Amino acid sequence: MKRNYEALFGAFYERYFDFKSEKMSDAEALVCTSEAYFGIQRRGEMEKAVVNIAEGRIYLTHSKIFIKAKEKIVEALSSLDLQKLQLETTPDEYQDILERRDMVLDGIESIPVDYSPYTRWYYYEMEEEVKNYFGIVINDMKNASELIEDVMGRFERECRSTLSERIVVKTTLAELLIRHGIKAEGEFLKIKSELEQFDLSEVGQQLTESEKSDLYIRIKEVLSKLNNL
Questions:
Q1: How far apart are CA 67 and CA 54, in angstroms?
Q2: CB under 8 Å to 18, separation ≥6 — which residues?
Q3: How far apart are CA 190 and CA 217, in angstroms?
Q4: DSSP letters of 83-117?
Q5: What's 60's DSSP letter?
Q6: C-alpha–C-alpha distance, residues 110 and 25, integer Å
Q7: What is the pLDDT of residues 18-57, one digit of tens each?
């Protein structure tokens, strides 16, 4: 049982990072991993404990946790049949599971809750991802149009996913182009038009109030700079 116990933890984390390597957000990668292991946790109390502990431990590294995910993990770990768990594990494994369970249950209460139903890149994560990718490709592009096309191609999926992701991608890209003194009049006009028409209230719970305030200021500054070009 010990080999399976340790292997299940390792396999869950490996699957998560596999999804991450497919350019998924932290949240989406974890949701996909949880779904992939949904059936496995029904095999026994050990599997139920390990899968939910592994998912919970990863959420402890995230900036937010989906409300339904939190409720599911807390309910699963709080309702473990400890008698069955003892029969399925060695004494050391049993004690280790209880310690990890308690760590997750304690830590999960301090994670900000995400009430939006949409799996997505979170605000600051999306901004950072755009900046990182821009920094990688900027020196390889021959002109502004090619650079913008490459960046928008990389984040095409995110821009189609949610309004918050789309507007953060466009705002961050505009900031980077302005900061680097890159002239792209046609592309700037398209971004400018979209930012001018953007209604902050439409993102709903996809962004927190502080994130909305930050985005509002950023868009206002971008539009001001674009009007002066």
A1: 17
A2: none
A3: 19
A4: HHHHHHS-HHHHHHHHHHHHHHHHHHTTSPEE--S
A5: T
A6: 21
A7: 999 999 999 999 999 999 999 998 889 999 999 999 999 9
